[in-house]
């Protein structure tokens, strides 16, 4: 599956760079303070995985203690941290692309290679800028992704998601329906319902949390387009 995964990622990367995205390579580890600021601890505490170190390596039994780092649950959080306290001067906004290893503490009984994994690879295209510019940038995304899936003979369709992508739990209660109505999160799903890609609109949430501003001083809006690479590779027609 590795060769197939790399072939798929090459196609997605070419598509991302066609949107004038700057390619980045971020580490697996992410500072815990970044995820706290992003609201991940409030939204998805059950999925968090952390990095630990042996506090007393000379002891007979290891004594693991948490470090200031967590394992990245998604690629895009690195992008907001990288732009923290910055004012964007580009016309419209900035586009970033990256591929990374992500980790989520999934329920063991639900794990299945190529579908739901503790460790998986994700490619993301991230837009940070003005709301109108982001909407213009996302205008043809659904059609593009469906077309790319078709190139690999992967059958799927778009569906409105109801699970909040970015809202802290206290804010998310009662807003899942609103998210569905506003179509802030759309997923490209296989016939069995498994999502292999998503388009996520965040509004000004991360711009406010990380103090990323536009030239006029207002908080930047953001959106990300995410692809689960193992899911794409495992969805290829069997020879």
Structural commentary:
There is one protein chain. With 239 residues, this protein is an alpha+beta fold. It has one domain (2-26, 73-234): BirA Bifunctional Protein, domain 2, CATH 3.30.930.10. It has helices at 2-18, 32-37, 40-43, 76-82, 131-138, 141-151, 169-172, 176-182, 205-209, 229-234; strands at 22-24, 29-31, 50-54, 64-71, 87-88, 93-103, 119-129, 157-160, 185-189, 195-203, 213-214, 221-228. The strands form three sheets. A seven-stranded mixed β-sheet has the order 1-6-7-12-10-9-8. It has a three-stranded antiparallel β-sheet with strand order 2-4-3. Strand 9 (185-189) and strand 10 form a beta hairpin. It is globular, with a radius of gyration of 18 Å. The protein starts with a helix and ends in a 5-residue tail after the last helix.
CATH architecture: 2-Layer Sandwich
Radius of gyration using CA atoms only: 18 Å
Q: What is the CATH fold-level name?
A: BirA Bifunctional Protein, domain 2
Main sheet characteristics:
7 strands, mixed
Mean pLDDT: 90
When the domains are counted, the total is: 1
Task: Determine the structural class based on helices, strands and strand pairing.
Answer: alpha+beta
User: Could you give the distance between the termini?
Assistant: 12 Å
In CATH, the homologous superfamily goes by the name Bira Bifunctional Protein, Domain 2
H/E element sequence:
HEEHHEEHEEEHHEHHEEHEEH
The low-pLDDT segments are 172-181
